């Protein structure tokens, strides 16, 4: 989102864009907290702290092979530990799918909407799918109103 679009989503909302998909290592229990003296990699510590401090989280995803992209699943796996005391518990979470194809990420979004409550987070907003997304973003990053207004609505719901 650019500055104008942020403003139209509500000036009271601060968006922080993160791409932990690229930064987190592949989940490995041996890298995670095992004793009181060991800590997971610094990027995992930062990621979990940022998630637990966020009022709400929006996950936007494409669909890979009728499922969640592996990178996003890895992000969720890191977020979901330590078991029962993790950073997603109590978070407000909104989900949307966007793909150049016709499906708009439906399978990935359905999967996410199923697991968000199972992880102890609160699912907010309707199923949002944006197919043919390439035709809905200008080269300078402006979103078409058919994408922007549902996302702004979701952001406002998440901000409650
Ligand atoms: C391995 C792989 C599998 C994909 N499977 C699907 C799919 O099942 N359905 C779909 O609509 N698009 C599929 N796509 C297209 C992606 O959803 C997405 O539109 C495209 O990869 C661009 O997004 P990205 O740059 O974040 O990967 C697939 C792409 C990749 C790389």
Tell me what you see in this structure.
The protein has 160 residues and is of the alpha/beta class. The chain has one domain (18-26, 39-159): Rossmann fold. It has helices at 3-8, 20-23, 42-53, 70-79, 106-118, 145-159, and strands at residues 56-61, 92-98, 122-123, 128-130. Strands 1, 2, 3 and 4 form a 4-stranded parallel sheet that branches. α4 links the parallel β1 and β2. The protein is globular and about 50 Å long. The model has no long low-confidence stretch (mean pLDDT 90). The structure holds flavin mononucleotide. Flavin mononucleotide binds at residues 62-66, 99-101, 103.
| Helix-strand pattern | HHHEHEHEEH
Shape: globular
Percent of residues in helices comes to 25-40%
Tell me the structural class: alpha/beta
Q: Identify the CATH architecture.
A: 3-Layer(aba) Sandwich
Distance between the termini: 20 Å
Average pLDDT confidence is 90
Using only CA atoms, what is the Rg?
A: 16 Å
**Beta-strand percentage range:** 5-15%
Q: Which residues form runs of ≥5 with pLDDT under 50?
A: none
CATH superfamily: Flavodoxin domain
Largest sheet composition: 4 strands, parallel
Report the CATH C-level class. Answer: Alpha Beta
Total of domains: 1
DSSP strand count:
4
Bound molecules: flavin mononucleotide
Number of discrete helical segments: 6
CATH topology: Rossmann fold
